[in-house]
Design goal:
398 residues, 10 helices, alpha+beta, disordered N terminus, single chain
């Protein structure tokens, strides 16, 4: 096993055993022997920068430096926590994923098929988003270096991943390119594995996986970043699979990804084109945007392109939910600061967003308040349909 200079292998093994115990607690079961072997052979700390950022418990991040806080840095490296490895324009832009999330995705991909000590014969894997290279290292252990291709859009990250992999004795193919439209040469892959979240499956991905192969990707919508989709490819570009209730990954950069700023100030009782219309609602804004991931997942699927932000500044109301989309439509839902069964709504633009959200929530209630695990996706040609329980119960066309 590769080790950091000056650190004895047994000490690293103890740290990895602790990490594996934390992963087993998250998964309610120990990992298969094949995956445990991979976690031992790929030393996570060798893929991490000397400075990284940890969650501070208040929605922000605080740095930890290897040089000044070596023990804290090492503890973080072997914790079952996501670690931000890069900031861009003040926002996290690259991270080392939570190891239990990594393990869940590898299990969904069906990679630990062989006993410990044997590679998964014949399996070719395309990883989208190399990041630090750590996940690619795990894949190399599971299927062999020559059967792993990893794609990274950022040239600096691609170079760092390749350097990390080479330093730890792994040699997958590292390609710099756009993961949304990357078509590496060679035969179709058995597994396509994304390390970022998407709100639709790029068509190029479906051409990369053989019939019977798997595509595993974290999921997002403008409303909610949550869930992991595991698709099985069929003939003629058709694919179908289910969502799983874990994962919250950084989003793949998309040109139409817009988060709302403050919504325009509504004017009273205007009903002309583009004017704000005021009303009231008994649907609490916290019901659809207060952290219930099952509800938010459904709203994200069924009210496409719509995002929200909370305004607690008190400038307009004690608490305001701001809703917006990319067409210029917006809505605000105000709470007066007192216990109330009704909330004030203002809406404007081509869409009546709060009306759509209210209808979506009512639909979710009629379906029996399904959790994320009851949802699935079918792709046929250019059509993508989301459903609950079976394709017969379609809930959205994406």
């Amino acid at each position: 096993m590769a080790t950091t200079p000056g650190r004895e292998a047994p000490a690293v093994d103890v740290l990895v055993d602790g990490l594996l115990a934390a992963i087993a607690q998250q998964l309610d079961a120990p990992l298969p022997a094949r995956l445990r072997e991979a976690f031992h052979r790929v030393d996570r700390q060798r893929f991490l920068p000397d400075r990284m950022w940890l969650r501070d418990g208040s929605g922000g991040y605080e740095p930890v430096d290897r040089a000044t806080e070596p023990d804290r840095w090492t503890t973080a490296a072997y914790s079952d926590e996501p670690l931000v490895t890069r900031f861009t324009d003040g926002l996290p832009s690259s991270s080392a994923s939570m190891p239990s999330m990594v393990a869940r995705m590898l299990l969904l991909a069906g990679l630990p098929e062989r006993p410990a000590g044997q590679k998964t014969a014949g399996t070719r894997v395309l990883e989208l988003g190399a990041g630090t290279g750590y996940n690619a290292g795990l894949l190399c252990v599971l299927v062999g270096d020559g059967r792993v291709t990893t794609v990274e859009l950022d040239p600096v990250l691609a170079a760092e991943a390749q350097e990390n992999l080479k330093a730890t004795g792994f040699a997958p193919t590292v390609v710099m390119g756009d993961a949304a439209d990357c078509r590496p040469p060679g035969d179709a892959y058995d597994v396509v594995l994304a390390t970022f979240s998407v709100d639709r499956i790029p068509p190029a991905w479906l051409t990369q996986v053989r019939p019977g192969g798997r595509t595993v990707t974290p999921w997002t919508s403008a409303w909610c970043t949550y869930g992991t989709l595991a698709l099985t490819a069929h003939q003629h570009g058709r694919a179908e699979g289910r969502f799983h209730s874990f994962a919250s990954f950084m989003r793949m950069a998309r040109p139409d990804t817009v988060r709302p700023g403050p919504a325009p100030e509504p004017t009273a009782h205007e009903s002309g084109v583009g004017g704000a219309v005021r009303s009231s609602t008994t649907l609490s804004p916290w019901t659809v945007a207060g952290g219930d991931l099952d509800t938010e997942f459904h709203v994200g699927l069924t009210v496409p392109g719509t995002s929200f932000a909370w305004d607690t500044s008190g400038e307009h109301a004690p608490t305001r939910l701001q809703v917006a989309d990319t067409t210029g439509s917006w809505a605000t839902v105000d709470h007066d600061g007192r216990t109330s069964a009704a909330f004030t709504v203002a809406q404007a633009g081509p869409r009546r967003l709060w009306d759509e959200i209210t209808a979506a929530h009512a639909g979710w209630e009629r379906l029996g308040r399904p959790g994320v695990d009851r949802y699935g996706l079918t792709i046929t040609g250019h059509a993508t349909t989301a459903w609950v329980d079976s394709p017969a119960t379609a809930v959205a066309a994406l």
